[in-house]
Structures are given as structure tokens and as C-alpha cells.
Design brief:
Layout: H1 2-12, H2 21-30, E1 40-41, E2 44-45, E3 48-49, E4 51-52, E5 61-62, H3 63-79, H4 98-108, E6 115-117, H5 121-132, E7 141-145, H6 150-162, H7 167-170, E8 171-174, H8 185-195, E9 199-205, H9 217-226, E10 230-234, H10 246-249, E11 253-256, E12 271-274, H11 282-287, H12 325-341, H13 343-363, E13 378-380, E14 393-397, H14 402-411, E15 414-415, E16 417-419, E17 423-426, H15 435-451
Parallel strand pairs: 4-15, 7-8, 7-9, 9-10, 10-11
Antiparallel strand pairs: 1-5, 2-3, 6-12, 11-12, 13-14, 14-17, 16-17
Helix pairs in contact: 1-13, 2-15, 3-12, 4-12, 5-6, 8-9, 13-15
The structure holds pyridoxal-5'-phosphate.
EC number: 3.7.1.3
Binding site for pyridoxal 5'-phosphate: 121-122, 149-152, 205, 234, 237, 259, 294, 322
Family: Belongs to the kynureninase family.
Length: 452
Amino acid sequence: MTELREYLDKIDNSDTDVSVAEHATNLDSLDRLSQFRQEFHFPQKQGSDITYLCGNSLGLMPKRTQTLIEEELDVWKTRAVEGHFDHPYGRPWKSCDELVKASLATIVGAKTDEVVAMGQLTSNLHKLLVSFYRPTQQRYKIIFEDNAFPSDNYALQSHARLHGLDPQLTLVRVKPRQGESTIRTQDILDTISEHGDSVALVMFSGVQFYTGQLFDMASITSHAKSIGAIVGWDLAHAVGNVPLKLHEWGVDFAVWCSYKYLNSSPGGIAGIFIHESQTNERQQQMEHKRLEGWWGHDPETRFEMGPHFSPSFGASAWMVSNTPVLTLIALYASLQLFDEAGMDNLRAKSVALTGYMELLLRKSKHFTTSDNVDHKQFTIITPSNEHERGAQLSLKFNKDYMLFYNEQLQVHGVVGDDRKPKVIRLAPAPLYNTFSDVHRAVTVLNKVLDEY
Ligand SMILES: *Cc1c(COP(=O)(O)O)cnc(C)c1O
């Protein structure tokens, strides 16, 4: 993928007009992952594919998802309960969660037993907070980001209250500095130090949903651990998007949904990570405070239906219910594509795609670096440094016009999404988006701003 970077550097540093469509075509011809686009269905508008830059909200449907789901429906139709044990495609339902473990582990940088596909993001977060947020009189604070995704905020506040604590005094929210949009790593580290041994939990999102900022997960994790706190990450916008090394970084737990960059179907099955240091001793695994159910029981003896819970090894002990096969299979279909493409290749292409989009946006006559955005103007609040962002760029508009401009993009077949009060998010997904998609989106945006 170095060809993409070299080409971008070349046009960035030359006198050529970067906005000519030929550059997009040339970049597409250098893209070694271009064949993956054909693996996806694109919604149509007036007979042609829409320009879909919304994979950070809901990933597109892989064509093979339909085939795999139809196979499962067929097994249900023809074998019913037998499908749990005897499955014509070699995917017995009783252990189907195992199908995705290795791929998920690779994507998040974990050992296979540290991850499991289960439940949904927020409800999984609740389950993990039961185990990993155990405040004491001394250590009870949660260091958290201001303007976090509402669901995470609600979940954390509710746990504070469940422990009889006042959320206002328990949640310490790190904010961007006055006049800045993103949070400085140093400010996060300083806040952690300042609250020291009163901190029970440090919990951030890997990639911030509104600004697109990718946090320095390695530094934040290591600093939080050095003061004795537990560290959890919400990877909703990070998984399948940016490089993750959860095991190596020493993260205690993480949660994610998989319908965004992982294309697992709307509301599809989510996933969790629990570091092996939390579970590798049998005794330790037994003593965890945890919400328990039969699917977290050791599979060897699960069907003996005994009176005592004997936990599975690793993260699987946190499973509660049996796996929803149809959404698990949908995730499996998409993960096959991630295995084939490789996260390193995807990230390299993603950096180029988003870099190209930024280059085009910054050349727009409507782009401003000022924070005070006027009618017909926009600025970019996502960090410009490629190490501090994933695929998404957050364009900030004047709040009176943002919704209107986003509507106009849709009218012209360009789909990003709006986040109130001021942001349109555009996220080219490296599995299926092209440089020509990016070119088209920016061209349409410019036209809309010229016009209105
Ligand atoms: C998308 C997203 C969620 C979604 O939560 P669900 O439980 O899957 O509905 C939660 N947190 C963050 C940060 C998100 O971006």
C-alpha cells in the first residue's frame, strides 16, 4: 500500500490541481483491496450505487451474508433441533460462537480466549461493569470523557447510583480545552494523576463518535494501571477501523458493537474482551463477581445441568444466554472478508482514503480553519494527524445549516450522517469504498455549498 501514500504525497507536494477526478481513478488503480467492493451490496439511487460514507454507523451488507443466513434457515427448516449438534455445513449451533473468536482476536489484538461474541454493546457494558466497577470508600471515581456517547454515559451513571453514589461526584469528565474540539492526551493523563488512588475505573471510547478522535489507548491504559485503576474501552468506532493491541496494552476489558465497521447486520451481535490476567487462574475465575447464565458455564459439563456454576475459561464465562445463530453467522460472513483483506492492509488503505478526503476538503473554497463557522462554510474537527484518527472526518458546520446540508448530500446520493448540534460525519470504509467515492462526495458537497 506504499504506492497509495507515495501518490498522495506526490500530488500534495506538486502544483497539480488535486481535485481533478483523474487522481481518484489513479489511486483506485493502485488500490490492492479494490476487489472487495464487489463483495458488498450498495443501495441504489436513480439506477446507480449511492456514495456510502456511513459505514461508521451501519456497515453495508456483504453478499455472502445472505448465502450463509439462507443456509442456516435451511438447516433450521430441515433439521430443527438437530442443528445444534449435527450441521450439514459443519457449524453446529451449540458452539457456533467459536467460529468468530480467532478473527475477532486478530482484529482487537487479543488471545483467542480473551474475546467472545455475545449480546449487545450497552448490555455487555453493564455486565462488565458489574465485574469491573467495584467501588470502595477510597476508590470510587470513574474518569470519563465529556460528551461521550449517551448510552455509555447513562450506563456509568446508573452504576454509580446502583452503588449508592452520586453520579455528579463519581464521574470525572475530561473536556477539550476552551476553543479546542478534541481532548489532549496530556490532560487525560494529568486528570488520572490528580485523582490518583480515588480512581476505580478509567473508561473512554477508542474513537470518539462525534469528533472522530482516536485516543492514545496505549498511554492512557498504562498510566491508569500505574495508579491502580481498572481500564475499560468502548471500541464501537474503533473495532475494524484502527489498529488495536488490547492484550499487549494491558487493557482490563473492552466492549464493542459490530454493526459499524464490522458489517454484522443492524443491531447484530456484539463482542467483549477480558484480559487473561483477570481470568487465567481457576480460583480467580471462580471468584469473579459476575452476572451468570448457562452459556458461561464450562461447555464440557454445561448439559449436565448441575446446580453449581462452573465458569468457562477466559471471557466466555461472561456469556449468559445461548448464541443467536443468525446474527452470529452474519458477523462470521463479514469477518471472513476481514481475514482475507488483513487489518494492516485495511488500515493502510484507510489512512490513504481519509487523507485524500482531507486533502480535497481543505482545498474547498468553503473550508475554514476558524472555529466560528459561517453560512456556506465548514471546518474539520477531527485531528489531522493520521495516528489520532480512524476513517471518519467530522465536518463542523454552522448549526443553522448543518441538517439542511446533510439532507442535500442525501438528495444527491451521498450518505454520511448528522450528529447534532453541528457535525456531518463522513467515513470512507476501506473494505468497500473507493477514492472515486471520496472524490464524488467532496464534489457534491462543494456543489451544494456553492448553490445554497
Ligand atoms: C454505536 C455506539 C453504541 C451503541 O450501543 P448499542 O448498545 O449497540 O445500542 C454505544 N456506544 C458507543 C460509543 C457507540 O458509538
